[in-house]
Every structure is written in C-alpha cells, then in structure tokens.
Amino acid sequence: MQTSSPTPSDTTTPAPLPDRAPTPVRTPPPGAHALVVGASGITGSALVNQLTDAGWRVTGLSRSPVPGSSAEHVAADLRSLASLRDGLADLHPTHVFIAAWSRQETEAENIRVNAGMVRDLLAVLGPQGSVRHVALVTGLKHYLGPFEAYGQGDVPDTPFLEDADRLPVENFYYAQEDELFAAAATHGFTWSVHRSHTVIGHAVGNAMNMASTLAAYAGIQRHLGRPFVFPGSRTQWDGVVDLTDAAQLSDHQIWAATTPEAADTAFNVVNGDVVRWRRLWPRLAAHLGVEPQGPGDEPQPLEQQMADADGAWAELVAQHGLAEPDLRRVASWWHTDADLGRDMEVLADMTRSRLLGWAGYVSTERALLALVDRYRAERLVP
C-alpha cells in the first residue's frame, strides 16, 4: 500500500516545552503545620507558595509577609532569643524549614550569628514537643569554603559528592549543621540539609539574586549603549556549571521532610542539567535586547562596571515606570561576581536523591528566561 508524505497541513506544531518537570503535589501529613523561616526570600517565598498550594497550614517567619500569600505570618528577630520566645510561643509547628542567614563581615561573625540563629530557634521550638522534621538550606560553600578562604586549599573534585569530608576551615554552614544535629538528638526530630548552588527565583531585596542582577545589568548597559560583557573568568565562561531553581529547592525540602527514607541526610540540590555560559550568555543577551560580549583576559566585576549605575537606574525607573527605585534591592553585584568570577569548575552530584526516588528536573536556560520575563512583567527590571 502506497502512502504519501505528510503535507504541512497534515502536521501540527509541537507544543512548547515546559521549563521543568511537573512538580508533584505533596499532600501534607495529618496535622502538619509548616514554619518557614526566611519566608520573604528567594527560597522561603517559593516554599511558602508551594506548601500553601498543596494544602499545608503554613506560618512564615520574616520581617514582612510574603506578598499575595495566604500563609500566617510571624515577625520575630532571629538574632534575639527573647523575640523568638515571644513570637513563637505556643506555635507548635510540625515541620520547620530554615532558609535564612545574615551576612557578616567575617566568618567568625557569620558563625556566631548564623549558628546562633539556628540554636536559638530550635531551643524555642524543640521543647514544644511538636516538631517532627527540620530542613536546613545551605550551599556549595560546604565544599568550597567560606568567602574568606573561598576555593583555597584542597577543594574536592567535581562533581561535589555529598559524603565529602568537611574542609579544615571554620565555616558557618558546618556550625549550623552542628546546631541542627544537637537539637535533633535532644528533641527527637529528624533533619535534612539541602546544599543548593546559586539559587534563581523570584524575590525583591534579596542579597543573592543572579537573575534580577543580570536583568538589571542588561537594562543599564542597553540604556547606556554599552555591550553586555560577561563579567567573570574564562574558566566559568568555558566550563560547565549548574544552578538551583527555587521551586526545585522547595519541592526537594518538602520531599525530604515527608519521605522517611530521606531522614537524617544531607543532599545536594541542583536543577539536574548543566550549562556553559559561553552558550547561555548570547541567548540571555538576545532575550534582554543587548549585544553580548565574552570575557576579557581578567574578570571585569560588576561591582566595578556598575559603580556609577545609580543615575542610569533612576533614568530607567522614570522612563519605564519601574516599581523599585533602589537598585540595591534588585541587583546584588557582589554575589554574581563571586559566582561568575571563580577560576574553577563548580557543580554538584545528586546521587543520594536519585537513589531515593527523587525525579525533579529543571531546564536552567528556560527557567532563567521565564524568570526574566516575570521580573519584566512586574516592572522590576526594564
């Protein structure tokens, strides 16, 4: 039997691919009440939204409520034991998600402040007797070392393995983990640690926000008629790297908190793909309407390139009716410089999650471009 080839009218255009695998609806366990610490940040706000959408009772602890969320809200100072006692008295959460930290000038201060916040928080909640699980978000500085000794000494080979030994340096991530482990042993709850890498997501005023930083940088360069120069190292430009989408990180925490086999385990959490900036940068530039340019012989940090950008931003705010006049609440030059300026490959292995059945996957490129579109739609970037 003879058949004819399909004509254009016989075919249909494939539907656009999504930027992530479908996220399961993780139904709350009976009586579940989630407390999200750092609820207004990139990680915390995504977690609040995902939990509420799944039907959990959610309380967010932050300076201000998550916009548009139906979650309950507690305002308490994480650096004050008395404030935590007052704010969390009789709250009785069953699941606690810690996604907050406070950047200090030295690692010794980072340890004192950030480990102290975990210790005091669990000293208040633990005796209430209701906590079943505590999830702590950290990052790949677990393997790279703190900013004061970043990438120095014998850094483990990539991809970073979750069972790697701690580095022989002081690190506030280690101190936070130790406070978590001690409280779990005292009060009888399970725990999980989630080591993310360069979280991209939606938030305003966050100290570590690459997506809005690059979008703001592009807008300023376009306004000034300058190219979109890759500010980092040639190693980052040519090598492979992974990132962590905030929704991926949120679902991973909920999965670990509700999966008995995942209890008392530290995990790496990344998108599941790898990208090269030399491929992604021109695509991002085209999406943002700027002329891409690769790296120079040495990094060209954004903190230097954007040292005089406040005037240009004020003009963009007036021209486009932008919602945030304070550039510092949109762009975190220092953090993006640290990520893109590294002279080493950085990516993480997710074997532990995969072997326990975790199937989350995000296309980093698609998620980044979709996030830029969201920021534009909300008039946060031009």
TrEMBL record:
<dbReference type="InterPro" id="IPR036291">
    <property type="entry name" value="NAD(P)-bd_dom_sf"/>
</dbReference>
<feature type="compositionally biased region" description="Low complexity">
    <location>
        <begin position="1"/>
        <end position="14"/>
    </location>
</feature>
<feature type="domain" description="NAD-dependent epimerase/dehydratase">
    <location>
        <begin position="34"/>
        <end position="251"/>
    </location>
</feature>
<dbReference type="Pfam" id="PF01370">
    <property type="entry name" value="Epimerase"/>
</dbReference>
<feature type="region of interest" description="Disordered">
    <location>
        <begin position="1"/>
        <end position="30"/>
    </location>
</feature>
<dbReference type="InterPro" id="IPR055222">
    <property type="entry name" value="PRISE-like_Rossmann-fold"/>
</dbReference>
<feature type="compositionally biased region" description="Pro residues">
    <location>
        <begin position="15"/>
        <end position="30"/>
    </location>
</feature>
<dbReference type="InterPro" id="IPR001509">
    <property type="entry name" value="Epimerase_deHydtase"/>
</dbReference>
<protein>
    <submittedName>
        <fullName>Epimerase</fullName>
    </submittedName>
</protein>
